[in-house]
Amino acid sequence: MSFERKIKNKLYRIVPLATRVLVVASVNTSVKDWSAYIDAVPGENHENEWEEVARFGAKISQEMATLLFPELEKLYCWRK
Fold first, then answer.
1. Exposed, middle or buried: residue 9 (CB in 10 Å: 0-12, 13-18, 19+)?
2. Among 9, 10, 22, 76, fewest CB within 10 Å belongs to which?
3. Is the pLDDT of residue 1 over 90?
4. Domain with 36 in it
């Protein structure tokens, strides 16, 4: 089940692909850009694990991110 978090001018959308794999879309609402990151997590509590993925995860391609977050592609520019 996906979920969302807002912190200051950042919006994060979190999608678990598996129990131990999260993808996090990171949106900077002030400059209106976004990117997405993937990483393995312990899988014990996604509510506590997503921030590490946002900070240290591997950036995924725009094509893959658009498949997971099609609504963001329509609203924001891809962060290169």
1. exposed
2. 9
3. no
4. 3-78
Are the CB atoms for 26 and 18 separated by under 8 Å? no
Provide the domain count of the chain. 1
The 10s digit of each residue's pLDDT in 24-40 is: 999 999 999 999 999 99
Average pLDDT of every residue of the chain: 97
37 in Cβ contact with 24 (< 8 Å):
yes
Contacts for 43 with CB less than 8 Å, ≥ 6 apart: 18, 19, 20, 49
In the block, residue with structure tokens 């807002």: 6
